[in-house]
Amino acid sequence: MFLVSASWALAQEGHDVDIQVISVSATGRGTSPQFDSRIPRGLRTQLERSNLAYSRYDLLANSRQPAAFGREVTFPLPDGEGLAIRASAPQPPASLLRLDARILDRDQRAILTSQLRVRYDATFLLHRPKGDAALILGVSAHQPK
What we know:
Layout: H1 2-13, E1 17-27, E2 34-35, H2 41-49, E3 56-67, E4 72-76, E5 82-91, E6 96-104, E7 110-119, E8 124-130, E9 133-142
């Protein structure tokens, strides 16, 4: 409930950036992977070019939230985990944003952290292995519409 309320309030007040997270389940091992047709084309291309060798990729969620620079937004993940992302204002070159991403366990402890400088509309992958499977997150930042 809090996430919905916080997102709604940001949308009403204006926001600096939209954060998109596409969650994909990757399972099995193989050289000829099968892709859920709902996975966006750009993300599918990235997965095909990666050195990940899973045999099946299934879309779990495709979410987008408004965010203010310097404030963290959190996306729910399977198994009670979460993805917290904080965007910082662009630094020269102006088209690059800093994104601080943390995958959180059920107790809100960081189990994976990543700090990146990314271009608007470019997707980066976060890979969270889970035994023989994985959770793959395609994360991107977009200018507000």
